[in-house]
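Review form for a predicted model. The reviewer records the input and the model, then writes brief findings.
Reviewer: anonymous (R2)
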Amino acid sequence: MRTIEAADGHVVIQLHPDDDVLSSINSAIDEHGIDAGTVLSGIGSLKVLRTSTIVEYESFPDVPSPGEEATREIHSEMPWEVGSLQGAIVDSEPHLHIMVYNAEEDRTVAGHLHEGSITETLMEIVVQPIKGIDATRQLEEDGVPRISPRDK
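Model under review:
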C-alpha cells in the first residue's frame, strides 16, 4: 500500500496485489489522521471478495426485529472487477459499499465491504476528509446505526 496526500487534503490510496482492501483503508485513515470523511472513488480488481448484502427477511419491508437475520455474507475466490467503492468515515471507522462484476459468471454483486477482500492487480481509492464535523455513528431506536450529531 502507498498513500499520497494532496495539498487540499484528499488522500489517494494505491493498493498492490494481495493487499487487504479494508485493512489498508483503515491504515491510511490512521496514517493521515482522518476522523470524518468520504470515500469518493474506488476502482480496481479483487481475487477474494468478502461482502454482505441485504436479503428478504420475515418482517420485510419493516426494519428487521432484533436478532432477525437480514443479511447474507458472500465469500468468493475468483476475479472481480471493482466498478465502485464508496462510503462514509465517521469516528475514523469506514462504512463502505462495493459494486463488483465477474465476467466468467456474468454476475454483479453489491454490498457492504468486509475485511478479507484481497486486491488482485491494483486498487485506486480516493478519500476526502471532512473537517469541522462533530458526528458519530449511533444505534437508533430501531437498532440501525446512523450518523448522528455527537452528544455534547
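Findings: DSSP finds one helix and ten strands in the chain.
Further findings: The first strand starts at residue 2 and ends at 5.
Recommendation: see findings above.
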